[in-house]
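User: Teach me something about this protein's shape.
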Amino acid sequence: MLNIIDALQNTIVANLPVHEVSDWENQFRFLGIKLIDVSDLSILLVRFTINTLLIFCIVHFMYAKYSKRKDFYFSYLSIGVVVFLMCFLLNNVKLELGFALGLFAIFGIIRYRTSPIPIKEMTYLFIVIGISVMNALANTKVSYAELVFTNSALVFGLWLLEKRLMLIQEDSIKLIYEKIENINGLNDDILLTDLKKRTGININRYEIQKIDYLKDVAHIILYFNANGNYNQISPCEDYE
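Assistant: First, the predicted structure itself:
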């Protein structure tokens, strides 16, 4: 694989001497800036392809497959591409580690203020940003073998957590319950059975948020294992 990457980077300039390539590039300038740098462009194309394919595999074959959710699909792919290109193009500014940490701080502050993001989705967002920053800012001191190993280790670790360990993800929905007579410590089994029958969800536990005796209703939060219930009902929605 390393030989293929090196071949792709050197294909364009393989048949030309170094000084001829440099002279050819220097002839095409606009306002003192080169119109093209063949060496940097080839590196950009190779790294961009690797980074995009890696993020796509993580988002499509791990996040979307095992989480049964695709509402962050577009966001992860877009953020991965934008962060990579931004880091790669600004790499010459020499901001290095401070610049990378600043990106994490910015996304931590923004955090999509329109709606809260679950912990797992925030973790995948951090992974996507981290991979993009790593692949873009890796300099000549980092060999392709080290870069490939790091990316492979991240993918393998995610696969191990998602597929083999099968960590249980607990989610919740809000429910307005009208049988106020069941809201009693003595009727706990009756209430739980009725909630399971109505929602069709294997409920682990519930929490009574509010009881309104004037309307004879109660606001209840149901907690369940998200791994096997996304096809039945969307989490964090009101259910009556």
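Now, about its shape. The first strand starts at residue 29 and ends at 30. The beta strands are 29-30, 33-34, 170-177, 203-212, 217-225, 238-239. If you'd like, I can walk through any region in more detail.
User: That's plenty for now, thanks!
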